[in-house]
Amino acid sequence: MSWPDWIPLRTSLQSMSAYGAPQVPAEAVLNTNENPYPPSPELQAQITQAISQIVGTLNRYPDRDAVILRSALASYINERSQTNFGSENIWAANGSNEIIQSLFLACGSGVALGFTPSYSMHALISNVAGTTWINGERNSNFTFNSEIAVEQVEKLKPTLTFITTPNNPTGDAVPLAEIETLARAVAMHGGLLIVDEAYAEFSPEESAVSLIQAFPHIVVIRTMSKAFAFAGARVGYLVADLHIVNAMMLVRLPYHLSAITQAAAKVALDFRTELLGNVSQLVAARQELVKALNDLGLTTVPSAANFILFTGFKATSPQLWAALLEKGVLIRDVGLSSYLRVTVGNEAENKVFLEALTELL
Ligand SMILES: Cc1ncc(COP(=O)(O)O)c(C=O)c1O
């Protein structure tokens, strides 16, 4: 894009493009790894009630430190990982993208490394923040390789090293022992190891939160957008040593998390048993979808998340993507030649997707 001279846009931004997963109407929307299940009528009613209780105080700023929500998030993490975190170990923001941005603002003074292909926003936010981003390597089958990763960390000595598990867009999850190996390598030269666990609830692997006590330079990023089916509410958080949380307070905007968001998220956490039940259903649907794709002669990358990367079709990725859209199915061309990524949807969406794909292959 060319920019008019009168905008004093920073030079580093001039060649960049905005993040832009297409938002177009489709019968099956399977492109942004959302959870297909809307909030149940009971959850909707409780959220509405919680918001109606605070609506009369919206003339006041919200709790700047979101302490009630952060305590509830700490309890949730402790329950799942048998840890002992308090609100001082949690920072919450408008989606985990804002968490990533805050980490760059606070600690992005050197080089940042991530093992790609991975979540594209890590590199994009790094560039926006003025941190040099380096694309590290994975195995040719896209799996994470801790030996290669350690070599890259030792060579580049990044201030921020990113690992995404399960990884987006490939879906593979990294065993805890390998994260620990990487954490040791990062500890040797200083810097933070950022473990992006946006899809953790879909994975059988143990969360890296259990490593934080031994390795205080590990920061785990989580989100309510996926397992909690709460993408529209925008709630992400990190789990870390309290000094990291204190650093987040230096860069956060005052009152960044609205009172409405805080109240709604607290209710969604109270409904975790119901919401995480839907996660088990999605994991089962993922297995069925993998089988159906394999039966169509396609190759799938093993996934521990709520999406599947697949290949083995004759058309190019943009061609098949466009042909599916014409049939009402929106999936994602993640820019990997001859691969496409599909999010696991509800039963009807998965059926529409498979029928459309069968016709096109
Ligand atoms: C790996 C990963 N991290 C973070 C995010 C951002 O999630 P949100 O900002 O909705 O919390 C996503 C979204 O797709 C993701 O795939």
UniProtKB/TrEMBL annotation:
What Gene3D superfamilies does the annotation carry?
Answer: Aspartate Aminotransferase, domain 1 (3.90.1150.10), Type I PLP-dependent aspartate aminotransferase-like (Major domain) (3.40.640.10)
Annotated keywords: Amino-acid biosynthesis, Aminotransferase, Histidine biosynthesis, Pyridoxal phosphate, Transferase
The source organism is freshwater metagenome
Q: What is this protein called?
A: Unannotated protein
The family database entries (SUPFAM superfamilies) matched by this protein are listed as: PLP-dependent transferases (SSF53383)
Question: What would you give as a GO molecular function for this chain, any one?
Answer: histidinol-phosphate transaminase activity
Q: Does the keyword Amino-acid biosynthesis apply?
A: yes
Q: Which cofactor does it need?
A: pyridoxal 5'-phosphate
Sequence ranges assigned to domain Aminotransferase class I/classII large in this UniProt record = 30-357
Q: Does the keyword Amino-acid biosynthesis apply?
A: yes
Gene Ontology BP annotations: L-histidine biosynthetic process
Its pathway is: Amino-acid biosynthesis
InterPro entries given in the database record: Aminotrans_II_pyridoxalP_BS (IPR001917), Aminotransferase_I/II_large (IPR004839), HisP_aminotrans (IPR005861), PyrdxlP-dep_Trfase (IPR015424), PyrdxlP-dep_Trfase_major (IPR015421), PyrdxlP-dep_Trfase_small (IPR015422)
